[in-house]
Amino acid sequence: MDNFHIASPNEEVSIDIKLVENKINYRVNQKGKERIGFSELEIFDNGNVTILGAKEIESDSTWQPVWGQHSSIRDHFKALQLEVDFDGVGGKLLARAYDQGVAFRIILNEGDKPTAADFKCTYNLPEGSNYFFPKGETEPVGPVKFAGLREVVTQEDGKVKKFSVPLVVESSDQSYIALLESDLYAARGIDPMRLNIGEASGNIAAVNSVSLNEEEWTSPWRVILLGNSAGDLVVNTVPVNLATPTQLDNTDWIKPGKTLWDWRVHGYTAPDGFVYGINTESYFRFIDFAAEKGIRYFLIDDSWYKHVSKGHFELSDQLDLQEVIDYAAKKEVELILYYDRKHGEYGDEGLFPYYQSLGMKGIKYGFMGSDVDFTRAAIQKSAESHLLIDFHDGPVPFTGIRRTYPNAITREYCHAQQDSRRAFTPESFIKMALINAITGPLDMNNGNFDLTGINSGKRQKGPRKTNSYVSTVVSEAARTLVIFSGLVCIPDAPEAYSAKADLFEFIQKLPVGKWDESRILHSDLSKYITTARRHGEEWFIGSVYNQEGGALDIQLDFLEEGKQYEVTFYEDTPETHGKTNPEAYQVRTGKVKKGDVIEAVMAPGGGHCMWIRPSK
Fold first, then answer.
1. What is the pLDDT of residue 200?
2. Is 503 helix (H, G, I), strand (E, B) or coil?
3. Pick from 37, 360, 61, 350: which is nearest to 200 by CA?
4. Alpha-carbon distance 346 to 327, whole Å?
5. Does any domain span residue 590?
6. What is the pLDDT of residues 293-340, one digit of tens each?
7. What is residue 1's predicted lDDT score, i.e. its pLDDT?
8. What's the rounded Cα separation, in Å, for the pair 154 and 152?
């Protein structure tokens, strides 16, 4: 009882498991080709393993997320459940094969066990591959070969440091693999998954350090996603299928949507001479615009309070918060309020009820840190107070948590636009849209329209280096669609959007988070991305190109046969340029039908948007 095999429902993906010198080894094949060579999976370092029994399972169900990239998700897999003795500790190894990837989980039974362990999975990856991975609040790394990967993560003292998930592997045959984890919710006493480089070429190890007690312990899922394109990985449903189902009895209060945001607008001078800042009148203007345009939320960032002590906030004297709260209620705009753990300990038990008592609908939680147990507790406590939570500043990715606790509406597992007063490049955006986004929703703060003003240094919190922000206003609009999130935070001033109302229409119409279907039509990790999302019978399509600019043919083969559609195009012009002429754009309308091909022409650093709906 040392060799096992399981294939996915369509039999194109398979897992082989065997014992080698009392160690569990696995292999992943796709369409008859080895994708992961035999690799070890263990919980106790160098522990001996005995397989005591095996059972095959097939499951096919469908569930509806509260919000997401798809309104209905099929969860269809075949699995092996192996009864295992892990070096004297009883438990199980679960191995699932999906048509789009595989996953492994270890469960240790109740009873006496060591107090610490390392949940470890190695991956023997294809020779000659290119590697990509996130790098915190900077541009993701890649493409690099394996030797270059070791070089990138080697410190000055010669030690090889850990690097972040997901690791995206672009094989020489242009197929794609992503390595990550899902369902940290179910795992207790665990650090986030970290990746280490092995000695042999193509060998990577994923490790979680674990604290154990005598209770039953469940690992997160080790996830290996498979795709024919980089874009396939971003809309892959395997990670959310692996997550624990929702723990909330009532989710009616959870509303995805767009939000205005004050932080990047400070210092902006409106056409009437008004200068935005942290004050009541500025916030009234945001609320008025949100009410006029049907934007659900307004997010108030840092500095609404002066000091935090346990059980008490000392409010800022720059604004009358209660007056702002009352005005927002009158205008039917909901508020989200920032909190920074570095400013002091309010007290974890009292924080969320206090925000709820203020009438807030959500909390933007800064500097939560990479503590899994703390992050899980914060998400749960925010849900108890009916608060959305947007966690920031190096957070745990917590892939799949939006199924378990859908109030976890987004997070800054990326370089948010202008964060640390740096502007990211179009190339950075495309990489994050195809790498970081695999882990779930991102709070990236795209959608600036006053690009010339921001680049000239006219904002208090604009990029420190003037003229370093390379983008076009159409690219900014497209990015709000391309990046999936339950909370799309648009960072510019109301007057900047009003001045380009015909372009802002694209953002205004987006039914954020309530998508029936999402597809990545074009994807190249270094060059471009095209995303199409459907809500009812309407399609929204956004494309972004790197600083070379270019054209992509967008085939409308997903439209309904025999039906005529109206389309609005939001486009760069021949004169548009991400560096020298970022605000030139055009809006035009037309008719399209199934089978039409649209040439989306984009300026350097530019973009292209379409809003398609049935003709009346």
1. 84
2. helix
3. 37
4. 26
5. no
6. 999 999 999 989 888 887 788 888 889 999 999 999 999 999 999 998
7. 65
8. 6
> What pLDDT sits at residue 346?
63
Supply the pLDDT for residue 344: 65
Q: How many CB atoms lie within 10 A of CB 547?
A: 17
Question: How far is residue 359's CA from residue 447's CA, in Å, rounded to a whole number?
Answer: 27
pLDDT in tens, 416-429: 989 889 999 999 99
Which structure tokens are listed for 421? Answer: 């007063």
**What residue ranges in 400-445 does DSSP mark as E strands?**
408-411
Do 222 and 292 belong to one domain? no
Domain-embedded: residue 68: yes
DSSP SS3 for 448: coil
- Closest to 183 measured CA to CA, from 120, 247, 125: 247
Q: Is residue 18 in some structural domain?
A: yes
Q: What is the distance between the alpha carbons of residues 2 and 18, in angstroms, rounded to a whole number? A: 5
Question: ∠31-519-61 over CA atoms, to 5°?
Answer: 65
- In terms of domains, do 411 and 361 share one? yes
* Same domain assignment for residues 191 and 238: yes
Question: DSSP character for 374?
Answer: H
Q: Residues 43, 46, 52, 53: what is their CA dihedral angle, to the nearest 10 degrees?
A: 50
CATH number of the domain residue 61 falls in: 2.70.98.10
Dihedral pair phi/psi, residue 299, rounded to 5°: -100, 120
As given in the structure block, the two tokens for residue 307 are 């000091």
Half-sphere exposure for 331 (CA within 13 Å, toward CB): 25
Alpha carbon distance 537, 545 (integer Å): 27
378 neighbors 354 (Cβ within 8 angstroms)? no
pLDDT of the residue at 402: 98
Q: What is the CA radius of gyration of the chain?
A: 25
Q: Which domain holds residue 12?
A: 3-242
Residue 350: the pLDDT is 86
- Low-confidence spans in the chain with pLDDT less than 50: none
